[in-house]
Design a protein that fits this description.
heterodimer, A: mainly alpha, Helix Hairpins, 79% helix, elongated, B: mainly alpha, 2 domains, 18 helices, 75% helix, globular
Protein backbone atom coordinates (compact mmCIF):
# COMPACT_ATOMS: atom_id res chain seq x y z
CA UNK A 1 0.00 0.00 0.00
CA UNK A 2 2.75 2.41 0.98
CA UNK A 3 4.71 1.62 -2.17
CA UNK A 4 1.72 2.44 -4.32
CA UNK A 5 1.15 5.70 -2.49
CA UNK A 6 4.80 6.65 -2.97
CA UNK A 7 4.58 5.69 -6.61
CA UNK A 8 1.51 7.84 -7.06
CA UNK A 9 3.26 10.74 -5.41
CA UNK A 10 6.20 10.69 -7.82
CA UNK A 11 3.95 12.52 -10.29
CA UNK A 12 2.99 16.04 -9.17
CA UNK A 13 -0.63 16.50 -8.09
CA UNK A 14 -1.31 19.13 -10.75
CA UNK A 15 -0.80 16.55 -13.46
CA UNK A 16 -3.49 14.33 -11.99
CA UNK A 17 -5.88 17.23 -11.70
CA UNK A 18 -5.16 18.27 -15.27
CA UNK A 19 -5.54 14.73 -16.61
CA UNK A 20 -8.83 14.18 -14.88
CA UNK A 21 -10.16 17.54 -16.07
CA UNK A 22 -9.24 16.55 -19.62
CA UNK A 23 -10.95 13.16 -19.25
CA UNK A 24 -13.98 14.84 -17.71
CA UNK A 25 -14.20 17.31 -20.58
CA UNK A 26 -13.91 14.52 -23.16
CA UNK A 27 -16.75 12.70 -21.43
CA UNK A 28 -18.78 15.90 -21.21
CA UNK A 29 -18.30 16.71 -24.89
CA UNK A 30 -19.23 13.18 -25.85
CA UNK A 31 -22.34 13.18 -23.68
CA UNK A 32 -23.44 16.48 -25.19
CA UNK A 33 -22.69 15.92 -28.85
CA UNK A 34 -22.96 12.21 -29.62
CA UNK A 35 -26.38 11.01 -30.69
CA UNK A 36 -26.00 7.30 -30.01
CA UNK A 37 -27.29 6.55 -26.54
CA UNK A 38 -24.85 3.73 -25.86
CA UNK A 39 -21.95 6.08 -26.55
CA UNK A 40 -23.54 8.68 -24.28
CA UNK A 41 -23.63 6.08 -21.51
CA UNK A 42 -19.96 5.33 -22.11
CA UNK A 43 -19.13 9.03 -21.94
CA UNK A 44 -20.95 9.28 -18.63
CA UNK A 45 -18.82 6.40 -17.35
CA UNK A 46 -15.75 8.29 -18.51
CA UNK A 47 -16.85 11.30 -16.47
CA UNK A 48 -17.35 9.12 -13.38
CA UNK A 49 -13.95 7.52 -13.86
CA UNK A 50 -12.17 10.83 -14.19
CA UNK A 51 -13.61 11.67 -10.78
CA UNK A 52 -12.36 8.32 -9.48
CA UNK A 53 -8.87 9.12 -10.69
CA UNK A 54 -8.96 12.51 -9.05
CA UNK A 55 -10.19 11.07 -5.76
CA UNK A 56 -7.50 8.38 -5.73
CA UNK A 57 -4.80 10.94 -6.43
CA UNK A 58 -6.02 13.34 -3.74
CA UNK A 59 -6.31 10.46 -1.32
CA UNK A 60 -2.70 9.44 -1.90
CA UNK A 61 -1.45 13.00 -1.56
CA UNK A 62 -3.40 13.67 1.63
CA UNK A 63 -2.46 10.22 3.05
CA UNK A 64 -6.14 9.82 3.85
CA UNK A 65 -7.90 6.55 2.93
CA UNK A 66 -11.45 7.92 2.81
CA UNK A 67 -10.97 9.15 -0.76
CA UNK A 68 -10.22 5.63 -1.94
CA UNK A 69 -13.27 4.29 -0.13
CA UNK A 70 -15.35 6.88 -1.95
CA UNK A 71 -14.05 5.48 -5.24
CA UNK A 72 -15.56 2.08 -4.41
CA UNK A 73 -18.90 3.68 -3.69
CA UNK A 74 -18.80 5.54 -6.99
CA UNK A 75 -18.05 2.34 -8.90
CA UNK A 76 -20.89 0.54 -7.15
CA UNK A 77 -23.42 3.28 -7.70
CA UNK A 78 -22.34 3.83 -11.30
CA UNK A 79 -22.89 0.13 -11.95
CA UNK A 80 -26.36 0.28 -10.39
CA UNK A 81 -27.19 3.37 -12.38
CA UNK A 82 -26.08 1.89 -15.69
CA UNK A 83 -28.07 -1.27 -14.98
CA UNK A 84 -31.22 0.80 -14.69
CA UNK A 85 -30.18 2.93 -17.64
CA UNK A 86 -29.69 -0.03 -19.95
CA UNK A 87 -33.05 -1.46 -18.90
CA UNK A 88 -34.70 1.84 -19.79
CA UNK A 89 -32.77 1.85 -23.05
CA UNK A 90 -34.09 -1.61 -23.93
CA UNK A 91 -37.61 -0.39 -23.19
CA UNK A 92 -37.07 2.59 -25.48
CA UNK A 93 -35.61 0.38 -28.18
CA UNK A 94 -38.76 -1.74 -28.11
CA UNK A 95 -40.95 1.33 -28.42
CA UNK A 96 -39.17 3.18 -31.23
CA UNK A 97 -36.69 0.63 -32.58
CA UNK A 98 -33.72 2.99 -32.39
CA UNK A 99 -31.09 4.12 -29.88
CA UNK A 100 -30.74 7.62 -31.29
CA UNK A 101 -31.43 10.38 -28.76
CA UNK A 102 -32.99 12.49 -31.49
CA UNK A 103 -35.97 10.15 -31.21
CA UNK A 104 -36.69 11.69 -27.84
CA UNK A 105 -38.62 14.60 -29.19
CA UNK A 106 -42.25 13.74 -28.76
CA UNK A 107 -42.28 15.57 -25.47
CA UNK A 108 -40.91 18.97 -26.30
CA UNK A 109 -37.49 19.52 -24.74
CA UNK B 1 -31.58 4.87 12.06
CA UNK B 2 -34.36 2.54 13.17
CA UNK B 3 -36.81 4.41 10.93
CA UNK B 4 -34.36 4.15 8.05
CA UNK B 5 -34.10 0.38 8.49
CA UNK B 6 -37.85 0.03 8.95
CA UNK B 7 -38.59 1.79 5.68
CA UNK B 8 -36.06 -0.20 3.66
CA UNK B 9 -37.30 -3.49 5.13
CA UNK B 10 -40.85 -2.33 4.50
CA UNK B 11 -40.00 -1.94 0.83
CA UNK B 12 -38.85 -5.55 0.67
CA UNK B 13 -41.94 -6.73 2.57
CA UNK B 14 -44.17 -4.89 0.10
CA UNK B 15 -42.31 -6.56 -2.77
CA UNK B 16 -42.95 -9.98 -1.24
CA UNK B 17 -46.60 -9.17 -0.70
CA UNK B 18 -46.78 -8.36 -4.38
CA UNK B 19 -45.12 -11.66 -5.17
CA UNK B 20 -47.78 -13.48 -3.18
CA UNK B 21 -50.38 -11.66 -5.22
CA UNK B 22 -51.96 -9.85 -2.34
CA UNK B 23 -52.72 -6.61 -4.11
CA UNK B 24 -55.21 -5.20 -1.65
CA UNK B 25 -52.83 -5.35 1.31
CA UNK B 26 -50.05 -3.33 -0.35
CA UNK B 27 -51.12 0.22 0.43
CA UNK B 28 -52.36 -0.52 3.99
CA UNK B 29 -49.10 -2.28 4.91
CA UNK B 30 -47.11 0.55 3.39
CA UNK B 31 -49.10 3.16 5.29
CA UNK B 32 -48.78 1.25 8.57
CA UNK B 33 -45.03 1.01 8.11
CA UNK B 34 -44.75 4.70 7.31
CA UNK B 35 -46.72 5.62 10.41
CA UNK B 36 -44.44 3.28 12.37
CA UNK B 37 -41.42 5.18 11.04
CA UNK B 38 -43.03 8.45 12.06
CA UNK B 39 -43.53 7.11 15.59
CA UNK B 40 -39.94 5.86 15.71
CA UNK B 41 -38.67 9.32 14.82
CA UNK B 42 -40.56 10.84 17.70
CA UNK B 43 -39.56 8.28 20.32
CA UNK B 44 -36.21 10.01 20.26
CA UNK B 45 -34.29 6.77 19.80
CA UNK B 46 -31.10 7.31 17.76
CA UNK B 47 -31.89 11.00 17.57
CA UNK B 48 -29.09 13.59 17.88
CA UNK B 49 -26.61 10.77 17.82
CA UNK B 50 -23.82 10.19 15.31
CA UNK B 51 -24.60 7.06 13.28
CA UNK B 52 -22.73 4.99 10.69
CA UNK B 53 -19.23 6.08 11.75
CA UNK B 54 -20.33 9.68 12.22
CA UNK B 55 -21.78 10.05 8.75
CA UNK B 56 -25.45 10.54 9.55
CA UNK B 57 -27.15 12.42 12.34
CA UNK B 58 -30.89 12.77 12.73
CA UNK B 59 -31.34 16.16 14.35
CA UNK B 60 -34.42 18.33 14.75
CA UNK B 61 -34.02 19.69 11.23
CA UNK B 62 -33.99 16.29 9.57
CA UNK B 63 -36.79 14.90 11.74
CA UNK B 64 -39.07 17.78 10.78
CA UNK B 65 -38.36 17.26 7.07
CA UNK B 66 -38.61 13.49 7.33
CA UNK B 67 -41.99 13.68 9.06
CA UNK B 68 -43.26 16.02 6.37
CA UNK B 69 -42.09 13.60 3.68
CA UNK B 70 -43.67 10.64 5.46
CA UNK B 71 -47.00 12.48 5.74
CA UNK B 72 -46.92 13.30 2.03
CA UNK B 73 -46.03 9.73 1.12
CA UNK B 74 -48.91 8.42 3.24
CA UNK B 75 -51.28 10.74 1.36
CA UNK B 76 -49.88 9.48 -1.94
CA UNK B 77 -50.28 5.85 -0.86
CA UNK B 78 -53.91 6.46 0.07
CA UNK B 79 -54.35 7.94 -3.39
CA UNK B 80 -52.45 4.95 -4.81
CA UNK B 81 -55.20 2.52 -3.76
CA UNK B 82 -57.48 4.06 -6.35
CA UNK B 83 -54.75 5.02 -8.83
CA UNK B 84 -53.39 1.49 -9.15
CA UNK B 85 -56.78 -0.23 -8.86
CA UNK B 86 -56.98 -0.89 -12.59
CA UNK B 87 -53.39 -2.03 -12.92
CA UNK B 88 -53.09 -5.81 -13.13
CA UNK B 89 -49.41 -6.46 -12.43
CA UNK B 90 -46.29 -4.91 -10.89
CA UNK B 91 -48.26 -2.77 -8.46
CA UNK B 92 -46.09 -3.79 -5.53
CA UNK B 93 -42.97 -2.60 -7.31
CA UNK B 94 -44.34 0.91 -7.54
CA UNK B 95 -44.95 1.13 -3.81
CA UNK B 96 -41.63 -0.52 -2.99
CA UNK B 97 -39.65 1.78 -5.27
CA UNK B 98 -41.30 4.79 -3.69
CA UNK B 99 -40.30 3.50 -0.25
CA UNK B 100 -36.71 2.90 -1.39
CA UNK B 101 -36.62 6.38 -2.81
CA UNK B 102 -37.87 7.67 0.53
CA UNK B 103 -34.91 6.10 2.37
CA UNK B 104 -32.62 8.09 0.11
CA UNK B 105 -34.62 11.18 1.01
CA UNK B 106 -34.10 10.44 4.72
CA UNK B 107 -30.36 10.24 4.19
CA UNK B 108 -30.41 13.54 2.32
CA UNK B 109 -31.91 15.39 5.26
CA UNK B 110 -29.56 13.87 7.81
CA UNK B 111 -26.13 13.57 6.22
CA UNK B 112 -23.02 14.88 7.94
CA UNK B 113 -20.64 13.48 5.35
CA UNK B 114 -20.42 14.17 1.64
CA UNK B 115 -20.34 10.43 0.94
CA UNK B 116 -23.82 10.07 2.38
CA UNK B 117 -24.97 13.09 0.39
CA UNK B 118 -23.88 11.28 -2.77
CA UNK B 119 -25.44 7.96 -1.73
CA UNK B 120 -28.64 9.69 -0.65
CA UNK B 121 -29.01 11.45 -4.00
CA UNK B 122 -28.47 8.20 -5.86
CA UNK B 123 -30.79 6.14 -3.67
CA UNK B 124 -33.39 8.84 -4.19
CA UNK B 125 -32.90 9.04 -7.96
CA UNK B 126 -32.37 5.50 -9.20
CA UNK B 127 -35.85 4.26 -8.15
CA UNK B 128 -37.29 7.40 -9.70
CA UNK B 129 -35.75 6.66 -13.08
CA UNK B 130 -37.65 3.37 -13.02
CA UNK B 131 -40.84 4.88 -11.61
CA UNK B 132 -40.94 7.56 -14.31
CA UNK B 133 -41.06 4.75 -16.86
CA UNK B 134 -43.78 3.00 -14.89
CA UNK B 135 -46.17 2.75 -17.81
CA UNK B 136 -44.17 0.23 -19.76
CA UNK B 137 -46.12 0.40 -23.00
CA UNK B 138 -46.56 4.14 -23.09
CA UNK B 139 -44.08 5.92 -25.29
CA UNK B 140 -44.27 9.14 -23.32
CA UNK B 141 -43.51 7.44 -20.05
CA UNK B 142 -40.48 5.71 -21.52
CA UNK B 143 -39.18 8.92 -22.99
CA UNK B 144 -39.65 10.75 -19.69
CA UNK B 145 -37.82 8.03 -17.84
CA UNK B 146 -34.97 7.99 -20.33
CA UNK B 147 -34.56 11.75 -20.32
CA UNK B 148 -34.63 11.85 -16.56
CA UNK B 149 -32.02 9.11 -16.42
CA UNK B 150 -29.64 10.72 -18.91
CA UNK B 151 -29.82 14.20 -17.45
CA UNK B 152 -29.79 12.84 -13.91
CA UNK B 153 -26.58 10.88 -14.38
CA UNK B 154 -25.10 13.82 -16.20
CA UNK B 155 -25.81 15.97 -13.15
CA UNK B 156 -24.42 13.27 -10.87
CA UNK B 157 -21.11 13.39 -12.73
CA UNK B 158 -20.83 17.13 -12.10
CA UNK B 159 -21.86 16.68 -8.54
CA UNK B 160 -19.17 14.03 -7.99
CA UNK B 161 -16.54 16.23 -9.57
CA UNK B 162 -17.52 18.93 -7.10
CA UNK B 163 -17.17 16.59 -4.15
CA UNK B 164 -13.77 15.40 -5.38
CA UNK B 165 -12.53 18.98 -5.66
CA UNK B 166 -13.78 19.90 -2.21
CA UNK B 167 -12.07 16.80 -0.88
CA UNK B 168 -8.88 17.74 -2.65
CA UNK B 169 -8.78 21.09 -0.88
CA UNK B 170 -10.02 20.11 2.57
CA UNK B 171 -8.76 16.49 2.80
CA UNK B 172 -12.04 15.40 4.37
CA UNK B 173 -15.61 14.51 3.47
CA UNK B 174 -16.90 15.40 6.89
CA UNK B 175 -19.25 18.39 6.92
CA UNK B 176 -17.83 19.69 10.20
CA UNK B 177 -14.25 19.61 8.95
CA UNK B 178 -15.17 21.21 5.63
CA UNK B 179 -17.05 23.93 7.52
CA UNK B 180 -14.00 24.56 9.71
CA UNK B 181 -11.86 24.86 6.62
CA UNK B 182 -14.36 27.22 4.96
CA UNK B 183 -14.52 29.44 8.05
CA UNK B 184 -10.74 29.52 8.30
CA UNK B 185 -10.32 30.57 4.69
CA UNK B 186 -13.43 32.74 4.38
CA UNK B 187 -12.89 35.47 1.81
CA UNK B 188 -9.80 33.89 0.26
CA UNK B 189 -10.93 30.50 -0.99
CA UNK B 190 -8.81 28.58 -3.41
CA UNK B 191 -10.26 28.29 -6.90
CA UNK B 192 -10.65 24.52 -6.48
CA UNK B 193 -12.91 24.93 -3.46
CA UNK B 194 -15.08 27.48 -5.26
CA UNK B 195 -15.25 25.31 -8.37
CA UNK B 196 -16.09 22.32 -6.20
CA UNK B 197 -18.95 24.01 -4.39
CA UNK B 198 -20.17 25.40 -7.72
CA UNK B 199 -20.27 21.90 -9.24
CA UNK B 200 -22.09 20.43 -6.26
CA UNK B 201 -24.58 23.31 -6.42
CA UNK B 202 -25.13 22.54 -10.11
CA UNK B 203 -25.81 18.90 -9.32
CA UNK B 204 -28.27 19.79 -6.60
CA UNK B 205 -30.05 22.45 -8.62
CA UNK B 206 -30.62 19.77 -11.19
CA UNK B 207 -32.53 17.74 -8.65
CA UNK B 208 -34.65 20.72 -7.58
CA UNK B 209 -35.17 21.74 -11.24
CA UNK B 210 -33.72 25.23 -10.96
CA UNK B 211 -33.08 27.08 -14.21
CA UNK B 212 -30.88 26.76 -16.27
CA UNK B 213 -31.00 23.08 -15.30
CA UNK B 214 -34.78 22.76 -15.44
CA UNK B 215 -35.17 21.34 -18.95
CA UNK B 216 -36.03 17.86 -17.79
CA UNK B 217 -38.77 19.16 -15.49
CA UNK B 218 -41.75 19.80 -17.79
CA UNK B 219 -41.02 16.76 -19.99
CA UNK B 220 -40.58 14.33 -17.15
CA UNK B 221 -43.56 15.70 -15.24
CA UNK B 222 -45.73 15.32 -18.31
CA UNK B 223 -44.53 11.88 -19.30
CA UNK B 224 -44.36 10.15 -15.92
CA UNK B 225 -47.47 8.56 -14.35
CA UNK B 226 -49.35 11.19 -12.34
CA UNK B 227 -48.70 9.58 -8.96
CA UNK B 228 -44.98 9.52 -9.67
CA UNK B 229 -45.09 13.12 -10.86
CA UNK B 230 -46.71 14.06 -7.57
CA UNK B 231 -44.01 12.16 -5.70
CA UNK B 232 -41.28 13.92 -7.66
CA UNK B 233 -42.78 17.36 -7.19
CA UNK B 234 -43.20 16.93 -3.44
CA UNK B 235 -40.99 14.42 -1.64
CA UNK B 236 -38.03 14.68 -3.99
CA UNK B 237 -38.07 18.44 -4.02
CA UNK B 238 -38.34 18.61 -0.23
CA UNK B 239 -35.42 16.23 0.23
CA UNK B 240 -33.28 17.97 -2.35
CA UNK B 241 -33.87 21.34 -0.70
CA UNK B 242 -33.01 19.96 2.73
CA UNK B 243 -29.78 18.62 1.24
CA UNK B 244 -29.13 21.91 -0.52
CA UNK B 245 -29.60 23.82 2.73
CA UNK B 246 -27.19 21.59 4.62
CA UNK B 247 -24.64 21.89 1.85
CA UNK B 248 -24.89 25.65 1.51
CA UNK B 249 -24.57 26.22 5.23
CA UNK B 250 -21.53 23.94 5.20
CA UNK B 251 -19.68 26.03 2.64
CA UNK B 252 -20.39 29.18 4.63
CA UNK B 253 -21.71 30.69 1.37
CA UNK B 254 -18.65 32.20 -0.32
CA UNK B 255 -19.27 35.28 -2.45
CA UNK B 256 -18.94 33.38 -5.74
CA UNK B 257 -21.49 30.73 -4.77
CA UNK B 258 -23.92 33.35 -3.50
CA UNK B 259 -23.70 35.22 -6.82
CA UNK B 260 -24.27 32.03 -8.78
CA UNK B 261 -27.32 31.18 -6.71
CA UNK B 262 -28.62 34.71 -7.12
CA UNK B 263 -28.44 34.46 -10.92
CA UNK B 264 -30.08 31.04 -10.76
CA UNK B 265 -32.87 32.42 -8.60
CA UNK B 266 -33.63 35.26 -11.00
CA UNK B 267 -33.63 33.02 -14.08
CA UNK B 268 -35.70 30.35 -12.33
CA UNK B 269 -38.30 32.86 -11.19
CA UNK B 270 -38.56 34.29 -14.67
CA UNK B 271 -38.85 30.96 -16.47
CA UNK B 272 -41.16 29.40 -13.91
CA UNK B 273 -43.67 32.21 -14.03
CA UNK B 274 -43.45 33.65 -17.53
CA UNK B 275 -43.01 30.54 -19.68
CA UNK B 276 -45.86 28.92 -17.76
CA UNK B 277 -48.25 31.47 -19.26
CA UNK B 278 -48.08 29.64 -22.59
CA UNK B 279 -48.88 26.19 -21.23
CA UNK B 280 -52.22 24.54 -21.69
CA UNK B 281 -51.35 21.05 -20.45
CA UNK B 282 -52.09 20.94 -16.73
CA UNK B 283 -49.16 18.66 -15.87
CA UNK B 284 -46.73 20.93 -17.68
CA UNK B 285 -48.32 23.88 -15.95
CA UNK B 286 -47.68 22.21 -12.61
CA UNK B 287 -44.10 21.55 -13.69
CA UNK B 288 -43.57 25.25 -14.37
CA UNK B 289 -45.30 26.08 -11.13
CA UNK B 290 -42.85 23.73 -9.45
CA UNK B 291 -39.95 25.54 -11.14
CA UNK B 292 -41.34 28.88 -9.99
CA UNK B 293 -41.57 27.62 -6.41
CA UNK B 294 -37.99 26.40 -6.69
CA UNK B 295 -37.10 29.99 -7.44
CA UNK B 296 -38.75 31.25 -4.25
CA UNK B 297 -37.12 28.48 -2.22
CA UNK B 298 -33.72 29.32 -3.68
CA UNK B 299 -34.31 32.87 -2.54
CA UNK B 300 -34.84 31.62 0.99
CA UNK B 301 -31.63 29.62 0.65
CA UNK B 302 -29.71 32.71 -0.44
CA UNK B 303 -30.39 34.67 2.69
CA UNK B 304 -28.67 32.34 5.11
CA UNK B 305 -29.95 33.16 8.56
CA UNK B 306 -31.10 31.05 11.47
CA UNK B 307 -34.67 31.18 10.21
CA UNK B 308 -33.96 29.75 6.77
CA UNK B 309 -34.38 26.13 7.81
CA UNK B 310 -37.77 26.82 9.38
CA UNK B 311 -38.86 28.75 6.32
CA UNK B 312 -37.81 26.01 3.93
CA UNK B 313 -39.73 23.49 5.99
CA UNK B 314 -42.94 25.52 6.05
CA UNK B 315 -42.68 26.38 2.37
CA UNK B 316 -41.93 22.89 1.08
CA UNK B 317 -44.57 21.26 3.26
CA UNK B 318 -47.40 23.60 2.31
CA UNK B 319 -46.35 23.49 -1.34
CA UNK B 320 -46.33 19.68 -1.21
CA UNK B 321 -49.82 19.54 0.34
CA UNK B 322 -51.29 21.77 -2.35
CA UNK B 323 -49.51 19.88 -5.12
CA UNK B 324 -50.63 16.44 -3.95
CA UNK B 325 -54.25 17.61 -3.79
CA UNK B 326 -54.11 19.10 -7.26
CA UNK B 327 -52.57 16.05 -8.85
CA UNK B 328 -55.34 13.89 -7.39
CA UNK B 329 -57.99 16.24 -8.76
CA UNK B 330 -56.18 16.12 -12.11
CA UNK B 331 -56.25 12.31 -12.15
CA UNK B 332 -59.98 12.27 -11.45
CA UNK B 333 -60.74 14.88 -14.09
CA UNK B 334 -58.42 13.19 -16.56
CA UNK B 335 -60.30 9.92 -16.17
CA UNK B 336 -63.59 11.66 -16.88
CA UNK B 337 -62.02 13.22 -19.98
CA UNK B 338 -60.52 10.01 -21.38
CA UNK B 339 -56.89 10.81 -20.65
CA UNK B 340 -56.90 14.42 -21.80
CA UNK B 341 -54.63 16.63 -19.69
CA UNK B 342 -55.56 20.04 -21.06
CA UNK B 343 -56.73 22.51 -18.42
CA UNK B 344 -60.12 22.59 -20.15
CA UNK B 345 -60.96 19.24 -18.58
CA UNK B 346 -61.73 21.16 -15.39
CA UNK B 347 -64.60 22.94 -17.11
CA UNK B 348 -67.87 22.31 -15.34
CA UNK B 349 -66.21 20.95 -12.24
CA UNK B 350 -68.15 23.32 -9.99
CA UNK B 351 -71.51 22.20 -11.26
CA UNK B 352 -70.61 18.51 -11.12
CA UNK B 353 -68.76 18.48 -7.80
CA UNK B 354 -69.02 21.82 -5.94
CA UNK B 355 -66.85 20.81 -2.97
CA UNK B 356 -64.11 19.44 -5.24
CA UNK B 357 -64.09 22.69 -7.21
CA UNK B 358 -63.86 24.77 -4.05
CA UNK B 359 -60.94 22.71 -2.72
CA UNK B 360 -59.21 22.93 -6.10
CA UNK B 361 -59.62 26.67 -5.93
CA UNK B 362 -58.14 26.81 -2.42
CA UNK B 363 -55.15 24.70 -3.44
CA UNK B 364 -54.49 26.80 -6.52
CA UNK B 365 -54.84 30.01 -4.53
CA UNK B 366 -52.35 28.66 -2.04
CA UNK B 367 -49.86 27.95 -4.82
CA UNK B 368 -50.47 31.46 -6.15
CA UNK B 369 -49.93 32.91 -2.68
CA UNK B 370 -53.24 34.64 -1.99
CA UNK B 371 -53.72 35.82 1.63
CA UNK B 372 -55.47 33.49 4.09
CA UNK B 373 -53.78 30.47 2.54
CA UNK B 374 -50.52 28.85 3.60
CA UNK B 375 -48.87 29.75 0.30
CA UNK B 376 -49.20 33.44 1.18
CA UNK B 377 -47.52 33.06 4.56
CA UNK B 378 -44.75 31.00 2.98
CA UNK B 379 -44.04 33.57 0.26
CA UNK B 380 -44.35 36.45 2.70
CA UNK B 381 -41.79 34.92 5.04
CA UNK B 382 -39.40 34.21 2.18
CA UNK B 383 -39.63 37.82 1.04
CA UNK B 384 -39.12 39.04 4.57
CA UNK B 385 -36.06 36.84 4.92
CA UNK B 386 -34.64 38.05 1.62
CA UNK B 387 -35.13 41.71 2.59
CA UNK B 388 -33.40 41.09 5.89
CA UNK B 389 -30.58 39.42 3.98
CA UNK B 390 -30.17 42.58 1.90
CA UNK B 391 -31.62 41.27 -1.37
CA UNK B 392 -33.97 44.18 -1.96
CA UNK B 393 -33.96 44.22 -5.77
CA UNK B 394 -34.30 40.46 -5.98
CA UNK B 395 -37.32 40.61 -3.70
CA UNK B 396 -38.94 43.28 -5.84
CA UNK B 397 -38.37 41.13 -8.92
CA UNK B 398 -39.76 38.08 -7.13
CA UNK B 399 -42.90 39.97 -6.10
CA UNK B 400 -43.53 40.99 -9.71
CA UNK B 401 -42.98 37.39 -10.84
CA UNK B 402 -45.36 36.11 -8.17
CA UNK B 403 -48.01 38.53 -9.42
CA UNK B 404 -47.55 37.30 -13.00
CA UNK B 405 -47.74 33.75 -11.71
CA UNK B 406 -51.18 34.34 -10.20
CA UNK B 407 -52.55 34.69 -13.71
CA UNK B 408 -52.12 31.09 -14.77
CA UNK B 409 -53.48 29.71 -11.53
CA UNK B 410 -56.56 31.87 -11.92
CA UNK B 411 -56.92 30.60 -15.48
CA UNK B 412 -57.41 27.08 -14.13
CA UNK B 413 -59.83 28.30 -11.46
CA UNK B 414 -61.87 30.06 -14.12
CA UNK B 415 -62.12 26.82 -16.08
CA UNK B 416 -63.32 24.98 -12.97
CA UNK B 417 -66.10 27.51 -12.40
CA UNK B 418 -67.22 27.84 -16.02
CA UNK B 419 -70.25 25.65 -16.68
CA UNK B 420 -69.63 23.04 -19.37
CA UNK B 421 -71.96 22.50 -22.32
CA UNK B 422 -72.44 18.91 -21.29
CA UNK B 423 -72.08 17.87 -17.65
CA UNK B 424 -68.96 15.94 -16.71
CA UNK B 425 -69.14 12.79 -14.64
CA UNK B 426 -66.34 12.71 -12.09
CA UNK B 427 -66.21 9.69 -9.83
CA UNK B 428 -64.54 10.20 -6.45
CA UNK B 429 -63.76 7.37 -4.06
CA UNK B 430 -64.13 8.20 -0.34
CA UNK B 431 -60.37 7.82 0.22
CA UNK B 432 -59.53 10.29 -2.53
CA UNK B 433 -62.20 12.67 -1.32
CA UNK B 434 -60.67 12.51 2.15
CA UNK B 435 -57.13 13.22 0.93
CA UNK B 436 -58.22 16.12 -1.26
CA UNK B 437 -60.30 17.66 1.51
CA UNK B 438 -57.48 17.16 3.99
CA UNK B 439 -55.06 18.98 1.70
CA UNK B 440 -57.52 21.81 1.14
CA UNK B 441 -58.37 22.23 4.81
CA UNK B 442 -54.72 21.95 5.88
CA UNK B 443 -53.66 24.60 3.40
CA UNK B 444 -56.21 27.05 4.78
CA UNK B 445 -55.65 26.12 8.42
CA UNK B 446 -51.88 26.50 8.11
CA UNK B 447 -52.47 29.83 6.43
CA UNK B 448 -54.56 31.10 9.32
CA UNK B 449 -52.50 29.54 12.11
CA UNK B 450 -48.98 29.28 10.69
CA UNK B 451 -47.62 28.99 14.24
CA UNK B 452 -48.45 25.28 14.12
CA UNK B 453 -45.48 24.68 11.89
CA UNK B 454 -43.25 27.72 12.28
Amino acid sequence: MNEITTAIRTVPLEHYVFLSFVLFSIGLAGALFRRNTIIILMCLELMFNSVNLLLAAFSAFHSDPSGQVFVFFIMLVAAAEVTVGLAILVMMKRNVDSVDVNQLNRLRW
Amino acid sequence: MSALILISVLGVVVLYLGLLGNKRLLAPVGILGLIGALVLFYTGYHVEMPLFANMVRFDGFSIAFNSAMIVITVLLFVFGVDYYALMKEHVAEHYALMLFSLTGAFLLTAYTNLLVLFLGIEILSIPLYILAGGKKRSYRSGEASFKYFLLGSFATAFFLMGIALIYGVTASFDLGKVREYAELHAGQHSILFLLGSFFVAVGLSFKVAAAPFHFWGPDVYEGAPTLVTAFMATVVKTAAFAAFYRFVSMTGMPEALSRTLLVMTLVTLFIGNVVALRQSNFKRLMAYSSIAHTGFLLMALLSTSGLTAQMLFYYTFTYALATVGLFIVLTLAKRAANGNENIQIFRGLFRARPWLAIVTMLLLLSLAGIPLTAGFIAKYQVFLLAIQGGFLKTTAFAVVMALIGIYYYVLVIREAFTPAEEGIAIAVTPANWLVISLCGVAVVALGIWPAWLL
